[in-house]
Amino acid sequence: MNYKVPLKDMHFVANDVLDMPTHYARFARGHAAEPDMVAAIWEEAAKFCENELAPLNRIGDEEGCTWNDGEVTTPTGFKEAYDNYVANGWPLLACPEEYGGQNMPESMALVFMEMMIATNHSWSMYPGLSSGAMKTIHTHAPDHLKQRFMPPMVEGKWTGTMCLTEPHAGSDLGMLKTKAVPDAEAVEDGTYKISGSKIFISSGEHDFADNIIHIVLARLPDAPRGIKGISLFLVPKFNVNTDGSLGDRNGVRCGSIEEKMGIHGNSTCVMNFDDAQGYLISAPNKGMSAMFTFINESRLGVAMHGQAHSEVAFQKSLAYARDRVQFRTKPRVNADKPADPIISHPDVRRMLLTQKVFAEGGRMLNMYCGKLVDVSLAQELPSEEREEAETLLAILTPIAKGFLSETSLETTNLGIQVFGGHGFIKEWGMEQEVRDARISQLYEGTTGIQGLDLLGRKILGTRGAALKPLMDEMNDFIKANRWNKHGRALKPYVKMWQSLTRSVGWSAMKNTDEVNAAAVDYLMMAGYVTVAYFWAQAARIAEDKIEAGEGDADFLQSKISTADFYFQRIMPRTLGHEQAIKNGMDSIMSIDEDKFLFV
Question: For the chain, which has fewer Cβ within 10 Å, the N-terminal or C-terminal residue?
Answer without folding.
Answer: C
